[in-house]
Amino acid sequence: MKKKLYLGIITLLFISCTTQPQFTLTVNLNGVSEGMYYLTVRQDGNWNNIDSAEIIDNVAVFHRTSIDLPKVLFIQLKGQRSRFPVFVENSNIEVVGDPSVSKKVEISGSTSQDEYNLYLEKVKIYDDQLQELYAEYRKAIEEKNNDLVASLDKKYEEINGGKVDFTYNYIFENSASVVTAYIAFSNNYYYELEQLDAIASAFDPSIDNSVYVKDLRERVATLKSVDIGKKFIDFTMNDVNGNPIALSNFIGEKYILLDFWAAWCGPCRRENPNIVAIYNDYKDKGFDVVGISLDRKKEDWLKAIEDDKLSWNHLSDLAFWKNAAAKLYGVNSIPHSILLDAEGVIIAKNLKGEALRNKIAELLD
């Protein structure tokens, strides 16, 4: 009797082990014969290692327990900073090729990866044009050809706008896919709140537990809390002298432009002369600026303030993209600006160039 019971337990354990869904990820990349691969994930702005596998005879194998829904994980060779993504799901996935050339890395065994690759093929026509434009753009900046830079900026907006519109339609046509949710979240900064809300509401209930759906809906909630017509959200952050200053200290008399920027941000630095000119013209009429820097190094921050002649108040926690104020206000790209009235109510967002000047003139002239 005991022997039969023992055999029954072994049988049940064997069945449970062999039928439990899991994924296996095998990595075999050219020129990498030893060391360690890490499986990493991006969480709250940090890269976290969730697994590791030793490279033996050019091959490393990750064995992971099952996951509910497909997700993107990143493979990183120990000692290297570069990572490349792979959609994992409950299957046997193989990664082969040359890691120095991303287009020569082939991923098989993941239907989610296949789906994502199809999307990339569809937007390649836009990406190729943008890549060519970027090369021209860098050259124009090096040559300080401002007219050409402006022309290329306009062309960029047209081409990228085409990609954004295509992706928006693609999302609604494939709303039951986790891959689509990933694409939507990865491109969320291109869309206005109304569009993001529509996207977040359109996903099929079957993928509600996807991290990308949850993150997108969380972002929508954040943006709604700082939408036009909402009262400002207060925060306290150090000024250039290390003194903690609350945003509420500036509210009550003037229109305030919250300018999220950084010394390392090229578009921010190119917009700074416009803000300086508007500030100088209207600072005595009821307009002020509070700069919020996403820098990491204080010396870079202070030098940019001096070089660009930014003579208004400045705040920063030197936390890069983890900047506390940026998180409160849903900032995930810069330059980003928020215009407050004298009562601290948000009345406009992301006005640049002539649009910003026209708005301030409308309010104060």
Number of domains: 3
Apparent shape = elongated
SS class: alpha+beta
The helix count comes to 10
CATH top level of the largest domain is Alpha Beta
Question: Could you explain the architecture of this structure?
Answer:
This protein has 365 residues and is an alpha+beta fold. It folds into three domains: 108 residues, Immunoglobulin-like, CATH 2.60.40; 113 residues, no CATH class; 129 residues, Glutaredoxin. It is 43% helix and 23% strand. The chain has ten helices and 15 strands. Strands 13-12-11-14-15 form a five-stranded mixed β-sheet, covered by helices on one side. A four-stranded mixed β-sheet has the order 4-1-7-8, covered by helices on one side. A four-stranded antiparallel β-sheet has the order 3-2-5-6. Helix 3 runs antiparallel to helix 4 and helix 7 packs parallel to helix 10. The longest helix has 32 residues. The N terminus is likely disordered.
What is the element layout, followed by pairings?
Blueprint (H helix, E strand, L loop, with lengths): L1 H18 L2 E8 L6 E8 L2 E9 L5 E6 L5 E7 L6 E5 L3 E6 L7 E4 L2 H32 L3 H28 L4 H9 L6 H10 L8 H15 L10 E3 L5 E3 L8 E7 L4 H17 L4 E7 L4 H10 L5 E3 L8 H5 L7 E5 L5 E4 L3 H12 L1
Parallel strand pairs: 1-7, 11-12, 12-13
Antiparallel strand pairs: 1-4, 2-3, 2-5, 5-6, 7-8, 9-10, 11-14, 14-15
Helix pairs in contact: 2-3, 2-4, 3-4, 4-6, 5-6, 7-10
